[in-house]
Design goal:
Elements (H helix, E strand, L loop, with lengths): L7 H8 L10 E5 L4 H13 L4 E6 L3 H16 L9 E6 L10 H8 L2 E6 L10 H24 L5 E5 L10 E3 L13 H15 L6 E7 L1 E3 L14 H8 L6 E2 L5 E2 L1 E3 H12 L5 E7 L6 E2 H12 L6 E2 L1 H14 L2 H10 L10 E3 L2 H6 L14 H10 L9 H6 L2
Helix pairs in contact: 2-8, 4-5, 5-6
């Protein structure tokens, strides 16, 4: 099968309504090959009977299936009873109509009752034009599909995965109803995600229900520490563990809002089961339970049994950074370069409110766990997998608990 065409077998998946107890039709998931997308894919397969239609960036059907096959092996090992409920469609959120042929676009639009849009570039190094192309234009294409599904009368909900960092440089409290508060942005990722959320809000009246979720820094599973992705929190942690960070530029009292990926995925699944028309925006954050830089440093030092690096103010660090680079060897210079984009997140002055999340999630037992309750698992998994150089499947993490 080449291009965007669906096989006759795949078409049969779309022909029948799902027998799942929590909704009709199938789930379209973008970003299924990403960290959060993987966790959502696993939950839809493990906890429901629904078919998941995964839009995968690939030139043809064979390569789309190969990519999803790799994800399934990472999630479930070599053998999985769930494979027949995943339909991998080659496409690209950056292309018109998601890169789908007209026939296939209409087939999907008539069969999908829920769209969960996770696909995004989360790289801080990607320039603004490319970030917009993926995060903003990609969202626009997904909205176009959602409107087609609505015209077919099948769509119940669009879930858009945003980020708490649409808050940008905001200081003080930032609520779930807030968006434009005069903030600036630290990088193209924050700006493009802000613009994408603006776009979604403009289309709310054209869709039956829209749920926007804003996670903060997503880390590995709280139960096992498993993650295939080692960004943000992990970058300076790795530098500390491997003795490549001589100083840490940070504000000891600054909050570091961290949530485990299982909390985020569980919350999204729960929210999609709610009968809530219109727009609902939820902060999937630690909120009042957020750790401070001082607590994070103390946790790290305790678990690796090492004295923490000296803490310096960001202003001092910026002044001495050229000297640090000049005096460092090649490996330490590379580490300094990797850490640089993430350092602003250790000097933030914002606290995220989660009032709506408290109302909808906490009664279901979905309040965010405190970082200190699972931090040792995060660090243990990072070391065990050698910071992703030795990728290990999620199934292995579950059996080694």
């Amino acid at each position: 099968m080449h291009g965007g065409r669906l096989s006759a077998l795949d078409a049969s998946f779309f022909a029948a309504e799902s027998s799942a107890p929590h909704g009709d039709g199938h789930v379209l998931l973008t970003g299924a090959t990403g960290f959060l997308g993987m966790e959502l894919l696993a939950r839809y397969l493990e906890r429901t009977d629904r078919t998941v239609v995964a839009l995968v960036r690939a030139p043809d059907r064979h390569q789309a299936r190969a990519r999803i096959g790799g994800v399934m092996r990472l999630l479930f090992g070599e053998r999985s009873a769930h494979r027949e409920r995943v339909v991998a469609i080659p496409g690209d959120v950056r292309r018109d109509r998601l890169g789908l042929a007209q026939r296939d676009l209409e087939l999907v639009a008539g069969s999908v009752s829920e769209i969960v849009h996770c696909a995004a570039t989360v790289s801080f190094a990607t320039g603004l034009p490319e970030s917009r192309r993926i995060n903003v234009e990609g969202t626009s294409q997904v909205l176009g599909l959602a409107e087609r599904c609505t015209r077919h009368g099948v769509l119940r909900r669009l879930v858009h995965v945003s980020t708490a960092y649409v808050s940008g440089t905001c200081e003080g409290e930032f609520g779930e109803g807030d968006l434009s508060v005069g903030q600036r942005f630290r990088n193209p990722y924050e700006r493009s995600k802000y613009e994408a959320e603006e776009l979604v809000r403009e289309h709310v009246d054209e869709l039956p229900a829209v749920t926007i979720v804003r996670p903060s820094i997503i880390v590995g599973e709280s139960t096992t520490g498993w993650t295939p992705s080692f960004n943000v929190l992990y970058v300076p942690l790795r530098g500390f563990v491997q003795r490549k960070m001589r100083v840490l530029p940070a504000d000891l009292s600054a909050p570091v809002d961290v949530v485990p990926v299982d909390h985020v995925a569980d919350a999204i699944i729960h929210l999609t089961r709610q009968r809530e028309p219109g727009l609902g925006t939820y902060h999937l954050v630690a909120g009042e339970r957020a750790s401070t830089v001082a607590q994070l440093v103390e946790l790290s030092a305790r678990h690796v049994r090492r004295r923490p690096p000296p803490i310096v103010s960001p202003a001092v660090y910026r002044a001495v950074y050229p000297l640090l680079r000049a005096c460092a060897g090649q490996r330490r210079r590379a580490a300094l370069k990797r850490v640089q984009p993430f350092l602003p997140y250790y000097t933030m002055r914002v606290r995220y409110r989660r009032d709506r999340a408290v109302e909808k999630l906490d009664p279901a037992g979905l309040s965010p766990p405190p970082l200190e309750s699972y931090y040792h698992r995060l660090l243990g998994w990072a070391i065990q997998s050698n910071w992703s150089k030795r990728p290990l499947p999620r199934a292995q993490a579950a059996t080694s608990r």
